[in-house]
Amino acid sequence: MLQNPDGKLKPGLFVTAAVGIERVEARVVIPDEAVQKIDGASVVFVEEGGELEARKVRTGRTGASGSEPRLFIEILEGLEPGESFVDKGAFILKAELGKGSAGHEH
Q: Given this model, what pLDDT does residue 92 score?
């Protein structure tokens, strides 16, 4: 039952709600925008030897976490707990990587 002690909720009003269906444990969970698709493979950008590289990962379940308005994705293989990765800006790195592989044929 939804409580409405101050009477602000009235019939016909629109609301936005998040409903938790189940809670699951996962070894590695990262924001979904950190995972990019390159040539059909899911990748995460990680630092290797002082440089960023696109590392293939195997993804699992996707869902929300608590009150955060963003989605998270489970990483089954390819990223270890505590390992650093690029979160915000991963799409820009993917775009820059694509520029380097674009041909200039006329």
A: 84
